[in-house]
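Query structure, 281 tokens:
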């Protein structure tokens, strides 16, 4: 007889979505080796070096399918009752992952997220959720608590979720990158799922998405309007449209003042995409 995951003491499957960052993926997989964890690595664009990773099930896709679809692909190859999905540029440990997973296993929340620090140890608290998509997102304006706190949304750098929940409500994959987590957390909230921050678990987001690039600015602008349309409806999206344009224009002005030509080019692309995002309404 084959033992079940519960009988083997398996707590969670870690799903890592990686894009041509073999060294980071290898380091993260090594840190996640534990008898209670299995690891699935989604290899975007079928990187040959990542394909040879040991200590994980490697699921390769020839195309760049985006973060959300990559997570959903990893979920399809997971067996545990809790799935902990994460970026490949996360610095964490098996013990921290198990803390999050056990919070979900014990029924304290349907979804659990850690506090996220940047590479310099500064907390990414999400104090100003853009366009007020979440009325309460990750400690907005509140001091860091000592106990778990229920929130509406959080950054999806690392997320522990019941497997049945993420299979019933998969991450929306029409965004490719950016804003998909807002849409997903909105769906979870609408379905009355409990999302909690577990503040005694702190991870680091080593690279993040700070660099300004034209394609990033285009996606941020377009997907902002798309997200409002999908979660709030046509009229809120119509009201959000000029706000997104103004947001991108403001970034252009700041880049011009700082004399950063590469940033300015990226944000000009964002303005163009923001103007064209009326098609999302």
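Result returned for the query:
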């Amino acid at each position: 007889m084959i033992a079940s995951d519960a009988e083997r003491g398996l707590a969670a499957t870690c799903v890592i979505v990686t894009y041509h960052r073999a060294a980071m993926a290898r380091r993260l997989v090594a840190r996640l080796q534990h008898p209670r964890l299995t690891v699935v690595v989604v290899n975007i664009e079928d990187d040959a070096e990542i394909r040879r990773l040991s200590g994980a099930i490697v699921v390769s896709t020839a195309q760049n399918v985006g973060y959300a679809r990559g997570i959903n692909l990893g979920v399809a190859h997971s067996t545990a009752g809790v799935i902990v999905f994460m970026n490949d540029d996360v610095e964490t440990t098996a013990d921290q992952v198990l803390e999050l997973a056990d919070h979900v296993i014990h029924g304290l929340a349907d979804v659990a997220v850690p506090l996220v620090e940047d590479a310099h140890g500064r907390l990414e608290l999400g104090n100003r959720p853009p366009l007020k998509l979440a009325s309460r997102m990750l400690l907005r304006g509140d001091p860091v608590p000592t106990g778990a706190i229920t929130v509406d949304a959080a950054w999806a750098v690392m997320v522990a979720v019941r497997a049945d929940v993420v299979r019933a409500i998969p991450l929306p994959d029409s965004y490719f990158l950016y804003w998909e987590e807002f849409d997903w957390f909105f769906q979870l909230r609408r379905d009355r799922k409990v999302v909690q921050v577990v503040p005694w678990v702190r991870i680091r987001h080593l690279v993040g998405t700070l660099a300004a690039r034209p394609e990033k600015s285009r996606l941020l602008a377009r997907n902002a309007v798309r997200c409002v349309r999908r979660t709030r409806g046509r009229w809120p999206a119509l009201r959000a449209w000029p706000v997104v344009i103004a947001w991108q224009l403001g970034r252009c002005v700041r880049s011009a003042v700082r004399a950063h030509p590469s940033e300015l080019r990226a944000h000009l692309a964002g303005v163009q995409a923001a103007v064209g995002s009326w098609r999302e309404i």
